[in-house]
Amino acid sequence: MLLESLAGLLPVAPWQLAVIGLGVAAAYVIFGMAGFGTALVAGPVLAHFVPVATIVPLLALLDFFAAATNIARDRHAADRAELRRLVPLMAAGSLAGAAALLWGRPEALLWALGFFAVGYALYSLSGYKPMGRLTPRAAVPFGFIGGIFSALFGSGGFLYAIYLAGRLPDKDRIRVTQSTLIGLSTLTRAVLFLLAGVYAQASLLLLAAALAPAMVIGTALGRRITLALSREQFLRVVNLVVLCSGAALLWRQAMA
């Protein structure tokens, strides 16, 4: 009886939940491998079954707990020096992004972001000229601009990934440091949604709980795949996700 009552509060039918669960599991395989990119896969699937306004707070919850799982398991691999550089810049960028969201017209910036992501990914995947190691000063634009776009659109994760891939030699340090940044970013958004009363909706929280097993399974599978990859293979995966993220942004703008 209790299970039937809870199922009645879910905003989707059981068969829809199964389809969404498969999409979420696939999205978190990517997250487990690259540390970002869930919206790229899960967003379009969710958009077919739940209101668009539900997707961002739902993925903020799932992303936070996925990142927390990665951090708890591999926290020793996070690069604290890079976190000390990036976190303050990310926070400042988030404040600037929030201000732009309130007083500006930030949608036009998505074109620039999309073209940059696609161009960078194609350049990196071509192997034409391997990128040299970035200097610590590169944290300023990547951290600040990543914070801006994380606050505006929830899409700044790949900028952190580009920076970390150009700084760190070890794929596990890249993945866990990236997960830590995404965890902090999504925690901020989740707190804002909480204060705004978004999580007072029982249906949203139940849907998050119902999708949590798919998130856990996908994240664990992505981590296992990453452990079997070389650094070059790992960076190729990251660049493919960056390419798809940029293409998705451009498609979104073209269809708007």
Automatic annotation (TrEMBL):
Transmembrane spans: 12-33, 45-65, 86-103, 109-128, 140-163, 190-222, 234-251
UniProt signal peptide: none
Protein name: Probable membrane transporter protein
Pfam families given in the database record: TauE (PF01925)
Main location, first listed in the record: membrane
Family according to the record: Belongs to the 4-toluene sulfonate uptake permease (TSUP) (TC 2.A.102) family.
Subcellular location(s) of the protein: Cell membrane
Protein's UniProt keywords contain Transmembrane: yes
Record's keyword terms, sorted: Cell membrane, Membrane, Transmembrane, Transmembrane helix, Transport
Membrane topology: Multi-pass membrane protein
GO cellular component, one term: plasma membrane
